[in-house]
Every structure is written in C-alpha cells, then in structure tokens.
Specification:
The chain is 38% helix and 15% strand. By secondary structure, it is an alpha/beta fold. It folds into 2 domains: 2-22 and 272-376, Aspartate Aminotransferase, domain 1 (Alpha-Beta Complex), CATH 3.90.1150; 41-271, Aspartate Aminotransferase, domain 2. The strands form 3 sheets. A 7-stranded mixed sheet has the order 3-9-8-7-6-4-5, with helices on both faces. Helix 2 packs antiparallel against helix 9 (255-271), helix 10 (273-295) packs parallel to helix 12 and helix 11 crosses helix 12. The longest helix is centred in the last third of the chain and has 24 residues, at 347-370.
C-alpha cells in the first residue's frame, strides 16, 4: 500500500519499487534490523562484519562462485563486472544480450557508427553524452539466435559475453550451453546479469535451474528488498583480476545494504518467497487471459510468472496501456502492463484488481472496435515507448 502526500492510498500492482520489494513495502523485520544498524552507526572506514556474512551466504547459494564484490546499484555492479572481465582477458570488446544499465560501456551499443547517432540498435535508449570513440566496443546479440553466436565469437578482441538469462521467454534448448562452450573455447568471460531475475523463481539466480554456470553473475533488486545493495559473484581466477585495476567507491562499505541483504535472504528462505511470487504470478497471468477472453479482447501474456506482463494485440497498445493506468488509479490501484509480484500480494488482491480490470477491458474493446480517437478517452499524453530489451 502506498500513501500519497495528499492522503490517497493505492495498492501497488505495478513495479513494486522498481522490482525491489519482493517481501512487500515496509517489511517490519528488515526495517528493524536496518534501524538497529543505523543506531550503531552505519558507516565506517572499515568493512562491517555483515559484508563478510552476506558474501558467505551468497557463495553458499552459488557453489560455482568463489568471491564477491558489492556495490549499491545494478548499473555500477554491471560496470564492475565488465571492468573485471576486461582486466582478466586484456581485451576490450563486450557482447551483450539484454539490459545492463546506463553506463557509457553499455550505451555504446547504440552508437552504430561515428557519424549516425540516430540509428540505434536498441530503441528508446539515447546515447547522448556517450563518447563517439566508444562506437564498436559493444556488440548486440538477439536472444536465442544460435547463428549470431557464431558471428560474435569470431572477434578475437572479445572480452566478455553478458546476458540476462531470462526476461520474457526462456532460453532455447542448448542456447546457454553453446554460449558456455564458445566462451571456454575463446577465452571469453561469461557474465549472467541476474539483477532482475535473481531470487524471483529460485533461491538465488535463475541460472541455477540450468546446468550452465557463468564465470561471473550480477545480483540486485530483490536482494535488499528496497535497500540499496548489489553483488558481483565470480570465479576466483577472474575475480582476482580486480586487483590489477581500480574499482572503488566511498559508500560500498556502508552497512545498511549488507544488513538488509542478510535479513532479506533469511526472510526469503523462511517463507519460500520465490514459490509464493511464482504461484501468484501464474494466477495473475491466468486471470488476465480470463478477463480478456470474457470481453473478447486480444492480449498476449508472458515473462517470468513473478514478473508478469501482457500487451494489447493492437497498434494502439500504448494508448490502451495509458488508459489502463489512468483508470486503475481511479480504483485505487497503481498498475499497467507489468507486475512485480511480492509476498505482500495475495489472490484476494488480484481478484479485486481483476474486477476493475473487467470494466476497463470492456471499454478498451469498444475503443478498438470503433477506433475511438485517443483524445476522447485519455486525460493526458500517451506514455512513452519502453526501451526494447534484446531478449524480449
């Protein structure tokens, strides 16, 4: 539940703190531990013991890994992983498949050449401010495209292959295995970005459901249940190369994130949160389909159940998505076409939401059939196109 400054309250059936609050907002147990840490002082020139304890806990969950480095945001954790991979290989280029943050190394993928900044490889992510000299340092790969893998690995300057293990669709049979083999054969560091998928379907990275282990993995979002903490796990021979470069930040030793991370892991394990949010997500996906079918509206559902999504099968998808958010607010819900499920959600909340959704979908069905001008049903501008991830 969210309360606004003017006293209104909303149930969040949207992105739940940008996907962080897997145990719900204002979790009492986590808050109490964090407040206790603050009262004892949250910042020192020395490492706090919780940093070591959290590292040990994460390594217990990922037996392939040997060492951990911590940061505060997903973007900087991914930048750390790329820096270490480049140091480990002595190479420069990176191949990517997915969304990995806002830093220059990543947005360089949208500099198709030095003379044409408008022809982007990933729509919606503007590379303004990114030095043109970085053009060509990052290659993009389409998820589940086996032939593209052969192409990208012909580059002898390739340092790392970075990929989100799963976003909307699962990896095809043999896809991750081929990436692992090619990385081994070419001395390339394999990095799994699990900032979003981690702890959503398993107690740890979703890659644990496969037989493929990376050289490094990045975690964030759910790890701290709304408190800033991210982690880079890796094999010893790769992680030790961090000592040959400079990676540092003042607040990486700040205590709150480590305390929150440890408590979050304990609470996740206690309630089996990954099972709860997955079951709720399956229920929501089924409910979306049922409501749409009942009114004769065409939608497509997808993604990990715990990060449920749908889209309207219409050229006016964005207009209808805007209308959906607009009308849900009137019913006391924050929402759109993406829901990060949490343990604070339940079937009763979803049922109440779907009752409202039925009325909204009925209206959208009429708008679609009659091609009603958007100005007649929208109270503001249409939402912007979300940026496209390469493994949609």
């Amino acid at each position: 539940m969210i309360r606004t400054i003017d006293g209104k309250t909303y149930t969040d059936l949207g992105i739940m703190g940008i996907g962080t609050n897997i145990l719900g907002y204002n979790n009492e147990k986590i808050n109490c531990r964090v407040i206790e840490a603050i009262n004892k002082s949250n910042m020192s020139s020395l490492n706090c013991p919780e940093e070591v304890f959290l590292a040990e806990r994460l390594l217990e969950l990922h037996s392939w890994a040997d060492k951990v480095k911590f940061a505060r945001t997903g973007g900087e954790a991914n930048a750390i992983a790329v820096r270490i991979a480049r140091a480990a290989t002595g190479r420069d280029r990176v191949a990517i498949c997915g969304y990995h943050g806002w830093h220059d190394w990543y947005l360089a993928a949208n500099l198709k050449n030095d003379n044409n900044l408008e022809d982007h490889l990933m729509p919606g992510l503007e590379p303004a401010g990114v030095p043109k000299v970085l053009s060509g340092t990052v290659s993009t790969v389409t998820f589940n495209d086996f032939e593209e893998l052969d192409r990208v690995f012909t580059d002898p300057s390739l340092a790392a292959f970075k990929i989100e293990v799963q976003r909307n669709i699962p990896p095809a049979k043999g896809y991750l295995e081929k990436i692992r083999r090619l990385c081994n054969e070419n001395g390339v560091v394999l990095i799994f970005d699990e900032c979003t998928s981690g702890f959503r379907e398993t107690f740890g990275g979703i890659h644990l459901k496969t037989d493929v282990a990376p050289d490094m993995a990045v975690f964030g979002k759910a790890l701290g249940n709304g408190f800033a903490i991210t982690a880079v796990l890796g094999k010893e021979d790769v992680m030790d190369c961090a000592a040959s470069t400079f990676i540092s930040s003042t607040f990486w030793s700040e205590r709150i994130g480590f305390v929150a991370g440890l408590t979050t892991l304990n609470e996740m394990e206690k309630v089996q949160s990954w099972e709860i949010v997955t079951d709720l997500g399956k229920y929501l996906l089924k409910s979306w389909d049922q409501v749409a079918t009942s009114v004769g509206l065409s939608i497509t559902t997808g993604s990990l159940p715990a990060i449920a999504t749908f889209r309207f099968n219409s050229s006016r998808h964005l207009a209808y998505k805007t209308y959906l958010t607009q009308e849900l607010l009137k019913y006391g819900f924050l929402g759109g076409c993406l829901v990060f499920l949490s343990t604070a959600h339940n079937s009763e909340i979803i049922d109440k939401y779907c009752q409202m959704l039925y009325t909204i979908f009925q209206s959208i069905k009429v708008f679609e059939e009659e091609q009603t001008p958007e100005v007649k049903f929208l109270e503001g501008p249409i939402c912007r196109t979300p940026f496209k991830r390469l493994n949609d």
